[in-house]
């Protein structure tokens, strides 16, 4: 009977941290391989949007897709959208990196320098305006995008983000076409982009799809990302390929647990795997968290259901602090009241669906929340909007809200008022 060594614990619960076994995502990887090949051959293809709750592995998948593109000698860049941050500087930095990756394969250095001049002009237009409407020259003089060629004039420098981004993406796609590959821009937390930036991205992707340009955008965001894109441009519903990233099925969750364990000569009893799936709900982050705690508590192989039961409180305590608690602490008292009402009003049956997904993850009508708090819906709009902005809840359908974090309603029910 082999001991289970905590030093060899293979599980990795962490934000965006790749698990030892990327289970259940083969279809997404295959689809992206086809996209890369089609774009490189000049075939029309749509950009890709990954959507899902927190903890389902969107960032991990986004990074894996980027590795696929790099493996095909594509130029790549990645940014993380943030509320109130303009898209110009992050996009300029990401495309600068992407073109630098392509430059060694390009036969005409002058073409690269010409594009970098356009890129620099685009980046420098990020200078904010003063209250008088005039540019703030001191900030412009202080910040430089780190591009060694002079900025050009008359291309991607109008100050209109939509016009400029269309021109910039078109020029970048031409560079990629010259070397027979492509450029992929990866954007995480895409729902946090401002309305103007979302509209500009849609317009640029639309132009590229019409021209067959060798540049694609791969975005990742919360479940309401399609609604955000649709609000910006009505044609976005047909512009992007949407892939909903959800929890793992039973087989994939077992693979995520068993494959790394087998490499360490450790096995699980079937009942242990069944219980781990029930507790984790198949959500990849939770699978890693429960797997790690169970491994640390198991005295020997095979790991048993009793080992899972002993370890579960530790996993739940860690999730309560690092996954749930850290988000809860970001909310104001009014916002917490709103979320508690959401959790209390969810149609709870007291049971899960057999795999850890209970009704507390379901959407709740905003009108019902208002009635339960004895308030008018309009008076709760600031709290609701702030929670959406903070990424704690989302509105998938008009007039309803749901938590962005699985099992968050269950967590709130355990917290003192």
TrEMBL record:
Signal peptide: none annotated. SUPFAM superfamilies: P-loop containing nucleoside triphosphate hydrolases. GO terms for molecular function: electron transfer activity; heme binding; metal ion binding. Gene3D superfamilies: P-loop containing nucleotide triphosphate hydrolases (3.40.50.300). The keyword Metal-binding applies. Residues 177-328 form the Cytochrome c domain. This is AAA ATPase domain-containing protein.
